[in-house]
Amino acid sequence: MQFGAPAEKYDRYMGRFAVSLAPRLADAAGVIAGMSVVDVGCGPGALTDVLAERVGAGRVAAIDPAPQFAAACRDRNPGADVREGVAEHLPWPDDGFDAALSCLVIGFMRDADRGVREMARVTRPGGTVAACMWDIATGGMTMLDTFWRAVRTVVPDAEGETAMVGTAEGDIARRFTTAGLDDVTAGSLTATAHYTGFDDFWEPFTYGVGPAGSYLAAMPADGRAAVRDACRELVPDGPFPLDARAWFATGTVR
């Protein structure tokens, strides 16, 4: 799935969680000064920002299929090698990086297993591959779980995002093992976002970003209004935080 929304709208929708999640994934991957790293599916650059802070922009590469996201990431990280393209066909040579990371992207790859193999290909032997994706299967991503619970009060058989790669515990780790990575470890990471109130929570869903936004945009007006009302019943009054859990895995390239 390629995102068509402007970077600023993604920032309000999912970016507010990504900025909290990105440093935790970088920690899990062991990213430290002196390393060369690539961010696969960089979006507007939440993880790229973190990587550039740790190793310097000149040692960071990034790629995203959405041209407006690649452009935003490039603008926000001068000196980084930011390109437009897909995970399944990375434009870098073999063994070029110490680590390849992918934050909240594996579920959107057209061929996730090929994407993982490409991440391993561009990482040197002994280097690290790391990826994470929201816990959709058990409702650990509270913002999305709230939305889909509201949708199912209107459309009881709505599938939501549970079929996406990486959204069930252990799925990313299994794919890493199948791709031939060694020392595969898995666990969970937690992120937090803060909202000023219900409107701040609801409005980003109307931007058409991601599966939830696309689903809402395709509903008739009365359906959208019903989902909004159902969300309103599930969200606290006044300012509030929401936590989100992501499943992650890391592996070592042979």
Key phrases:
9 helices; Rossmann fold; 254 residues; alpha/beta
Question: Total number of helical segments?
Answer: 9
Report, as a whole number of angstroms, the end-to-end distance: 30 Å
Large-scale geometry: globular
Biggest sheet strand order reads 3-2-1-4-5-7-6
Beta-strand content estimate = 15-25%
Low-confidence stretches: none
In CATH terms, what is the fold-level topology of the domain at 7-136 and 162-194 and 243-252? Rossmann fold
> Please, what is the average pLDDT?
97
The structure class reads: alpha/beta
Please report the first level of CATH classification, the CATH class of the domain at 7-136 and 162-194 and 243-252: Alpha Beta
Task: Tell me the name of the CATH homologous superfamily of the domain at 7-136 and 162-194 and 243-252.
Answer: Vaccinia Virus protein VP39
Biggest pleated-sheet summary = 7 strands, mixed
Structure in words:
The chain has a seven-stranded mixed β-sheet with strand order 3-2-1-4-5-7-6, with helices on both faces. It is 40% helix and 23% strand. It has 254 residues and is an alpha/beta fold. The model has no long low-confidence stretch (mean pLDDT 97). The protein contains nine helices and seven strands; from the N terminus they run H-E-H-E-H-E-E-H-E-H-H-E-H-H-H-E. Helix 1 crosses helix 2 and helix 5 packs across helix 9.
Task: Please provide a brief summary of the model.
Helix content is 40%, strand content 23%. The protein is α/β, with parallel strands linked by helices and 254 residues long.
Secondary structure layout:
Blueprint: H1 7-28, E1 37-40, H2 46-55, E2 60-64, H3 67-76, E3 81-84, E4 97-103, H4 112-121, E5 123-134, H5 142-154, H6 171-178, E6 182-195, H7 198-202, H8 210-218, H9 221-234, E7 240-252
Parallel strand pairs: 1-2, 1-4, 2-3, 4-5
Antiparallel strand pairs: 5-7, 6-7
